[in-house]
Design a protein that fits this description.
By secondary structure, this protein is mainly alpha-helical. The protein has a single domain (about 10-555), classed as Hydantoin permease, CATH 1.10.4160. It has 21 helices and 2 strands. Strands 1-2 form a two-stranded antiparallel ribbon. Strand 1 (about 140) and strand 2 (about 145) form a beta hairpin. The longest helix is centred in the last third of the chain and has 44 residues, at about 385-430. The radius of gyration is 23 Å and the shape is globular. The relative contact order is 0.18.
Length: about 550
């Protein structure tokens, strides 16, 4: 007889945890720099379209499967078909030992800058905040630019101490369990995060030059819809900020009671997340407008590195603000740290949940061991070459790892488990009906998103690839309305074809030109290597025997 599975104390606790995981650091730090690097308003259209075409259907999939199976991602996929357990372990594996590792380093930067905001050490550095962040703080700057990934130095003591603090906080909270640790902390973190962001957005709107930044942020560039790279970045960002492919949402949904409104929870999570991302972008780009006016430059020229956007733009603003600069800086970096911790907690919880489902484990010891390993692996990111490692690992784990897991999930659930079966379970668990007004609503949303995509393809050069893409969009629109279940059609056809097409273009470009101008050895050894090692670990765990009671349930 298996032990009783923990449950959320309330639906509100679950929604806050799901929103906290999704909102996270990625919607302030990562969303802002990805938007900046992809042309501001030009990025927002593909981002919103990706939300409806890929994001919401996959979020429903993860919530639905987690609730149906009452298990973590590896166990849920094992119960669909034992051959697919490795997909779940790969998802939680490269998340725990990849994304979370550098994620905690960025949180450590945030903790450091909370204290830096009190005395603004960058004001006495030639080159300002940019030189301070890349040079004195990270130790990454050289006379020729930034250090390469193999130009390692000793760890930065400031970042190392902050990193240890981040892992200690994570360990204490997750080690206490779902009800005693995760849920109470999330209930405080998420409202506080939203409150801080409202203050920052309102504050930023009154900065001189804010209008210039907002115009750049919100003005669409229709021609960008024809650039497949923007679509890859948009879909990758949707995966990152909705926490798709991480195993988190499957694990969290597994703790829901039998009667749960899964559809409502998914829509609240999706719209709160994407809305927060766009809302937080107002503060970032209003600030960039302020910097552009002060320096006499265009918005696109004020920051030289996307990854360092938040840690260059805001310190520079703090030193130039005519009123309460210290409070502004402390508020902003506190918001970043809180956002990051809300996500890091959920990432660890997903892996611990998977281990608990497969093995008899002592939660406290497992969490302590994982946090120690995470801290040790993260030390490479505290060296002078750390930002290059972060850039490469982030690119490969998000652009390929998350997207591949999402693709496999759609195929496994759509074709093996059954999209219609999933929809029936979601209907039975709550009050929404896919065949009623909600189904019509989602069909209209997806039709609109696909129609915008078709319009954007008219900006592309004519050719076989463009013709096939247009044909696929038209067939997708027809299928959404002609098929009995729009969710089933999305999982079986629309999402797999769309993701395969983008992966094909991305890989082709990768072979022609290694990512970021790095050497092929760095790209293969660090980026591809990290994916392969975590995949091998997933296969090893997959081959390891289950505890007897779980095997009997799975069979």
């Amino acid at each position: 007889m298996s032990e009783q599975r923990e449950q959320w104390q309330s639906t509100a606790g679950f929604i806050m945890a799901a929103v906290g995981s999704a909102v996270g650091l990625g919607n302030i730090w990562r969303f802002s720099y990805v938007t900046y690097e992809n042309g501001g308003g030009a990025f927002l259209i593909p981002y919103v379209l990706a939300l409806f075409i890929v994001g919401i259907p996959l979020l429903l999939l993860e919530f639905g499967i987690g609730h149906y199976m009452k298990a973590s991602a590896p166990v849920s996929l094992f119960r669909i078909d034992r051959r697919f357990q490795w997909v779940g372990w790969w998802a939680v594996g490269f998340t725990m030992f990849g994304i979370l590792i550098y994620y905690c380093v960025v949180i450590a930067w945030c903790l450091s800058f909370i204290f830096f905001a009190l005395y603004q050490p960058w004001t006495g550095v030639e080159g300002g905040a940019n030189a301070f962040f890349f040079g004195e703080f990270l130790g990454a700057a050289t006379e020729d630019g930034l250090r390469g990934p193999f130009d390692l130095t000793g760890p930065n003591l400031t970042v190392l101490v902050a990193l240890a603090a981040v892992w200690a906080i994570n360990g204490v909270i997750v080690g206490r369990g779902l009800r005693a640790g995760v849920e109470p902390v999330i209930r405080v973190f998420i409202p506080l995060l939203f409150l801080l962001m409202i203050v920052l957005v309102v504050w930023s709107l009154f900065l001189p030059g804010a209008g210039q930044g907002l115009t750049w942020y919100l003005s669409p560039d229709w021609a960008k819809l024809a650039d497949w790279r923007v679509w890859v970045e948009a879909i990758t960002q949707i995966f990152f900020t909705l926490s798709l492919g991480f195993g988190i949402m499957i694990a969290y949904a597994s703790y829901l009671p039998e009667r749960s409104n899964i559809t409502r929870n998914a829509l609240i999570t999706a719209f709160a997340d994407s809305g927060f991302a766009i809302f937080a972008g107002v503060a970032v780009f209003a600030t960039l407008g302020f910097m552009a006016q002060a320096q006499g430059q265009g918005v696109e020229d004020v920051v030289t590195s996307g990854i360092g956007l938040a840690f260059v733009a805001y310190p520079q603003v703090i030193s130039e603000l005519p009123f309460l600069p210290t409070m502004f800086g402390v508020l902003f970096f506190s918001a970043l740290a809180i956002a990051g911790l809300s996500s890091s907690i959920s990432l660890i919880q997903a892996f611990v949940s998977a281990l608990s489902d497969k093995y008899e484990v002592d939660r406290t010891k497992v969490v302590g061991t994982l946090c120690t390993i995470g801290f040790l692996l993260g030390m490479v990111f505290t060296t002078g070459a750390g930002i290059a490692w972060l850039d490469i690992v982030d690119h490969f784990l998000t652009s390929y790892g998350l997207v591949l897991v999402g693709l496999l999930e759609a195929l496994i659930v759509g074709w093996v488990f059954g999209g219609e079966r999933l929809g029936s379970h979601i209907e039975g668990a709550g009050s929404f009906r896919f065949s009623s007004h909600y189904g019509t609503f989602m069909r209209l949303l997806m039709t609109g998103a696909l129609a915008f995509t078709w319009f954007g393809l008219h900006q592309a050069e004519d050719g076989l690839g463009t013709f096939l893409a247009r044909l696929f969009v038209l067939l997708s629109i027809a299928g959404v309305w002609l098929q009995r279940s729009w969710l089933d059609y999305s999982l079986k056809v629309i999402i797999p074809v769309a993701l395969l097409g983008l992966l094909d273009r991305a890989l082709a470009q990768e072979l022609l030109e290694p990512y970021g101008g790095y050497s092929p050895w760095a790209v293969v050894g660090i980026g591809v290597g990290w994916l392969v090692v975590t995949l091998l670990v997933a296969v090893v765990i997959d081959l390891h025997s289950w505890r007897q009671e779980e095997r009997s349930r799975a069979d």
